[in-house]
Amino acid sequence: MPAGVYLSILNICEVQVTINQASGVIDHTLFVCKTCASVWQDGQRVGESGGQKLLQKIQQLAQNWELRDEFPIQEVECMSACNRSCVVAFVGKGKLTYVFGDLAVDDNASAILECASKYYEKSDGLLPWAERPEALKKGILARIPTFRVQK
Fold this sequence. Notes:
Blueprint: E1 4-9, E2 13-18, E3 28-33, E4 39-41, E5 44-46, H1 50-62, E6 73-76, E7 88-92, E8 97-100, H2 109-121, E9 140-144
Helix pairs in contact: 1-2
């Protein structure tokens, strides 16, 4: 079995999905852009980015999250939504993919995990606006259709 699977999401981002070693299959992933809200100087990132801070807050809260083993969190170098940072994406096998932006670093980690839990429960991944936590009602960047392989 390969060490990883590559997934492109309609030119929004390119990420590497790590295969869950226990089952050999991964069904859900929460991607967090670690480059978001960076400070740049002479073409180099300076200090810790907002995306890195958000990732750390999500990872800290996820230690006690009931879905931590079923819905891994993976950092992404860049999701190309710099003017809408900070950015996360929910991806699930056979489900819609959601990309959210405009997420404040300090206030949204718990809302992101709450929304990921709702996404996990939906067989098609559909997240109606009214069911999303307040922080994820406004910042939707994309709802990407399910990818199906034609035989």
